[in-house]
Amino acid sequence: MNKHASKMCKVIFSLGLFGCLMPGSALGSTNPGLTKYVPADVFLCVQEKANPERQFVEDYWKDVYDAFKATGLTEELMSFVGGFLSDGQGEQVDRLKEKMTLLIDGVDWKSLATKETLFAERFGKPMINGSSINMGPPDMVWLLRGDANGAEKNFQGLSAIFHAAAEEINGAAGQKVVAVIKPDGFGDNVLTLAPSMMPLEQAPASLSLAYRNDTIIIAMGSNMLKETLDLVQGRSTAKSLADSPRFKTAFIGLPAAEDGQTFFDMQAMLKPIQQLATAAIASSGGGASQGPTNKAASALNAEALKAYNQKDNAKALTLIKQAHEADPDSGLVMYNLACFSAITGDNDEALTWLTKAVDSGFHNPKQIARDDDLKALRDDARFKSALAKAKIATKGDGGDPAKMAIVNRIFDTVGIMDYSVSVAFTEGRATHSACKMALVKDAKNNAFYPVIASSKPLKQYSRHLPKETESFSVSSSIDLVELYHFITDSVKLLGPDGAAGLEHWAMLQEQNGFNLERDLLSLFEGEFISVSIPSDMGMTSVTMIKVANEESAREKLTMALNHMSAAMQQAATQQPMMAMFALRTSESTDERLPGFQSVSMGTTSMQLGVVDGYLMMGTSADAIALCRDTAAGKHPNVTKNKRIMETASIPQGSFTGVEFTDKRGTGKKLAGVISGISMGGSMAMMAIPDPQQQKILVKVLGMIAKLAPVAQKINFYESSSSYTTFDGLVWATHEVTNYVEKEHRASTN
User: Fold this and answer.
1) How far apart are CA 564 and CA 424, in angstroms?
2) Rounded to an integer, what distance in angstroms lies between the CA atom of residue 236 and that of residue 38?
3) Which 3 state secondary structure label does DSSP give 207?
4) What is the domain partition of the chain in residue ranges?
5) Contact 451/414 with Cβ under 8 angstroms?
6) How far apart are CA 693 and CA 685, in angstroms?
7) Domain 288-397 classified CATH 1.10.630.10?
8) How far apart are the C-alpha atoms of 501 and 508, rounded to whole Å?
9) pLDDT of 369 over the 90 cut
10) What is the pLDDT of residues 196-234, one digit of tens each?
């Protein structure tokens, strides 16, 4: 059961991407799987497929699950929580627990998703109706393909869970607030959990369950359910994601997705959000306007937008015409008449309405220019004329354009990303991930491009890494100077307030004799190196940051250390406890590190210095000296490390990042963290005078301690590594995770 539950958890976890974040042709063109049942306008699609080659990973995690189950923590936690409940509450919890157990047993979880799982999500177009602006919850769909013989049984089992949920919700509310219904027009084997006070099409949210053949479908939003079912049953005229040219193109050049794939379309996600933000600012007098609309026309306009979001364009056009009859002077209604005419193919009519909309007060040039519904009109002289009029009218508006300028800056910055895709596959005892993150075609004209793309590509990763290296990372980071310029330019968009803020910032820097750009940011060139090296005293680490000017960097480092030391001494005079954190510096006495400083704070110490073109920081002089000897050719580098060279993913040419992490002992480290928490909790208990609170803490710490042997079961990792390249528009990353042979697991900890 955990194998498939794990898959479902990963799919559901993909919701965190929006907070709301992945053969030589696209998988969609060779083996689309469930993507052929997903509408083409989703911005996120996460697909996982059963692959016998990956079974060993599932087996490893099954061992972890079995170890957790053996601890009895679930029952212990329920008992612990039950101790805080009254007799009546305890009985209620026991009743719910028994009911849940029966419901869960009614589903054959093993057969639910044995073949494939998929999660997809999209936003609907915002409902802009005069000053009323909103966007409902996103549409989501989960597709679970398993055993065809068990799909019907699982549908019945999940249906029972839906009915039980409605029963419990209504019982808690004391009235019927939700109902499980069989929606009209969706066919058999479909049910929906929705508010009982309104028609389904008006419900702000609904959860539906259906099954077709071997696939269980769970959907949020009736529109998503209908479109998915139409695609599954082959009765849709709309394109699926698998048939989308954009989707197919995104995966070109990536290996076959044997284990799964992820597609994230930044542009599809941003479009409705930007429309919402633009309309909100326009309605608040932010330099653009929609024009007034009377109440009757507003109601019809809202109905037309609902039909539009439900892909019923003919109905939307009929309703918006009725709205125009109710208010012939509404610029907003005329604008929607232009949009609905354009998407139904009547471009001449659309251009006529667009011109009238602008003349009647629809002064929102950003929305006009970016609305995809009007894409077919953009090359027409009448479109350009209407857009120009809207721009002129907006400039003459009495509102503050700064809000719109900042919003556009934010969306332009985030919108520099076009899409991100990844595929996963397994080879032997290693799992692989190949990813692409593409920028939009005109990204080089974006103000944010120099920040993320101006660093020079790296050509050498092994120069400073000694043969003894255990883990390392070499990368080129963002350009700090360009980032600073981007921030200051963005502040200028605030108008007089922004200019005053920058002037005050310049004055503060002058008063303190410190210029952030000149004295700090310009010192660093972007290359960053970190390396971990085993030693007799444990693991040592060295960090290196490439500097533009050694002499200046050395001077600024000394000044910074002196300033920090003086500031902490001053703080200690006012708060004696701060003395334990006093910063102590002295010239290094190690002859291998001339010009280095020995810096200590409390029990932590390190060596700092600027040499060989880098700011170097290390936890030991031996480690820094070893890295310097390696760079000078006096010591063999990491390319002589057989283990790393045989398992690492290493670039063959220039790159922007490469890293290798030794993951042996992962379980032992996790168990150590858990033990540390238990020990820290035991020490903290000494400061708790209340015996009852001490008793509770002892119980909690005891339960936490039981997780240590579970953590130690995570001893199957060998290493992980990746490298990234950048061609000016696309970052490409290859990542590999290596696992130990089962018989060698004990030795890894």
Assistant:
1) 47
2) 11
3) strand
4) 288-397, 452-477+508-640
5) no
6) 9
7) no
8) 11
9) no
10) 877 777 777 889 999 998 999 999 988 899 999 999 988
